[in-house]
Here is the input.
Amino acid sequence: MIRSVPRSRWFDGLYLAYLVAFFVYLALPLLVTGVFAFNDAPFPSLPWKGFTLDWYLADGSAGRTGLFHDDGLLAALWTSVRVAFWVTVVSVALGCVNAVLFERLQFRGKEFLYVLMLLPLVIPGVILGVSILVFYSGMANDVSRAWGIELDVFRPGMPLVVMGQVTFITTLSTLVIAARLRKFDPQLEEAALNLGATPLVAWFTVTLPWLLPSVFGAAAMAFLMSFENFNTTVMLTGSDTPLTVALFNRLREGSTPVLNAVALLLMVGSALLAMVVMGRSESRPS
Amino acid sequence: MSPSAGRLSLWLLLTPFLLWIVLLVLVPHLQMLRVSFQVRESWDTLAWGVEQYQNFFTESYYWRTFVRTGVMSLLTTFLTLIVAFPIAWYIARLARGRARGFLFLACLIPFWASELVRTYGWMILLRESGLFSAWLQALGWADGPVEMLYNDVAVIIGLVYNGLLFMVVPLVTTLDGMDENLVEAGYDLGGSHATVLREVVVPWAMPGIVSGCIVVFMLTLGSYLTPILMGGKDSAWFTQQIFTQFITRFNWEQGAALGVLLLVLSSLIVWLGLKLTGQSLRKVLG
Here is the structure.
């Protein structure tokens, strides 16, 4: 089963067939989603009726509303972008601080706190959403009942969605940044201190530039994860729904090629983002 | 650094971490636990009790779904491992140079699209008016449209698809670090394929297997989209019941109790998995 051990032709053939089948399984759903975004028919199914850009560009006059004229979807897209922006900012900032805390400092109870830091990864997303809903929205209800003060930030809506997503995305960004900080040679920082830099200057001129690739990597990941998240978001969303929730609601009513158009756009967008980040990290010597 | 400056920087770094973990993870979960033991007597009076948990055990609909979700998640995790292992083996040990990077990238691509997009792709393939049905008819293997969606097999296909990346990546990482001499030695000592796999490869890959299984199990148990969109009328998922209690029926007490039960189930199985294989959470996730 390794290169140096001879295998039978029969086994090799079977293995190859399995690989091909696997990659077909992997590609097929995405391929059909993309292709049917351009089918000139009201449903994403065969037969193929010819190529059209209507599902992007139609302005509603011919009974079809393309993505770029669909105000509901565009508003949802904008909500998702805003949520993802704030989630990225907060979780990457927290990730940097946590990484330094766990990689560079020694203190009592560190092991215990590290395991606490990992916890959000083993809590189902729905539960993260539910617990935040129960606590913050419940608090808003209690405050309103007791004192008549309306704490609207804590009602389902954008702030709660951001909080819910930050909960688990922070753990991921911490792990990404900490992995790179672990490879940092502290002598570089000591050299800067010996040359007369203050700790703060040394941090910003030596350590932070070293961390930057992982910070960008963590930011791209945080943005994508936030954009795609459904399980936590669905529990916390108010009247302005992010894109995944809006798509889900549409999908329950029935599927149209507009959904394919959005899906293809999402795939292309996240692929581009992923490629930019990968290209960045490859071009920098680590 | 003087001790007091060291102490100050420790607290400066510790504070954001504590705020995040306490305000977004610990307190909300404790509050969820508290609410699950509250019984609503009238619109503004509450008493302590276990009524919600009694409901769970007396209403067979609740606990049947609970057991079903757990069993199907375990099955999905197992299938994902079986499907992913040969692929990870090929990428880590058999593919060379460019092919290796290319195949690994191909495994990542579907995960740049969101769970919703992936599930949607499967719906286009499997449903009555879908592609597989059309192909079967075109080939003359079926007389009329065939419905392949809305059953448990479809749900499992979708769930395995969703979990693959989280299984392939840790497996490739651990298998990559394995010394081929160990495998050769296994064959030299007269081991068959099965013996070498069982005695050498699997023990070596165990950290990757455990971390992949934990993540896939967690994601499957807590998934919402795939079972709802691809499952039939009778194939409810436990997350759906939590959602119904919170959002549709506004019965937070019951929803919180169901949430606690799901959390207990997932923690218990993750804990058991770690204990049985002698791994620690820190080792497999951190």
In short: The mean pLDDT of chain A is 83. The CA atoms of residues 100 and 284 of chain A lie 22 Å apart. The radius of gyration of chain A is 24 Å.
